[in-house]
Amino acid sequence: MNLRKWVREMVAVMREEDLAEIEVRRWFTTVRVRRPGTDPVMPIQAAAPAETQGGSGERHDADGKPPANLVPIKSPMVGTFYRAPAPDADPYVEENSPITVGQTVCIVEAMKLMNEIESEVEGRIARILVENAQPVEYGQTLFLVESDTAA
């Protein structure tokens, strides 16, 4: 994700949540945005929310879960996310693509091993929350699938 897009998303989160200041740290990069005329606030240590990490604009309820008909596909391991089997190949899925149970949706590379991630739900890809070749954490939501039946 380029820095300009990242800052825009941070400003949008600040406006939505009525924040005076926001700071996001990812790997070796730290970005802090503060509204003019506000005093610095005490830092709060917290994991970056999915909206900041993956750029998702989806609304979540009080428990942090996506809406009932959106089922997350999460990373089962730490690694690097790839949307396609090779750099010159088409992605496994696109937004609005129909998927079936057992269909490969992406690859997570961990320790030079390419692990195919399969869907556990049937439906339609509503959102792709991670950019290609980006690092992912264990349990990080990669996709949101619109499904009539919850998993």
UniProtKB/TrEMBL annotation:
UniProt entry keywords in alphabetical sequence: Biotin, Fatty acid biosynthesis, Fatty acid metabolism, Lipid biosynthesis, Lipid metabolism
Name the pathway.
Lipid metabolism; fatty acid biosynthesis
What are its GO cellular component terms? acetyl-CoA carboxylase complex
**Entry-linked InterPro entries:** AcCoA_biotinCC, Biotin_BS, Biotin_Carboxyl_Carrier/Decarb, Biotin_lipoyl, Single_hybrid_motif
Question: What Gene3D superfamilies does its record include?
Answer: 2.40.50.100
List this protein's GO terms for biological process.
fatty acid biosynthetic process
Which top-rank group of organisms is this from?
Answer: Bacteria
Task: Answer yes or no on keyword S-adenosyl-L-methionine.
Answer: no
Q: Which NCBIfam families match?
A: BCCP (TIGR00531)
Functional summary from the UniProt entry: This protein is a component of the acetyl coenzyme A carboxylase complex; first, biotin carboxylase catalyzes the carboxylation of the carrier protein and then the transcarboxylase transfers the carboxyl group to form malonyl-CoA.
User: What name appears for this protein in its UniProt entry?
Assistant: Biotin carboxyl carrier protein of acetyl-CoA carboxylase
List the top taxonomic levels of the source. Answer: Bacteria, Candidatus Eiseniibacteriota
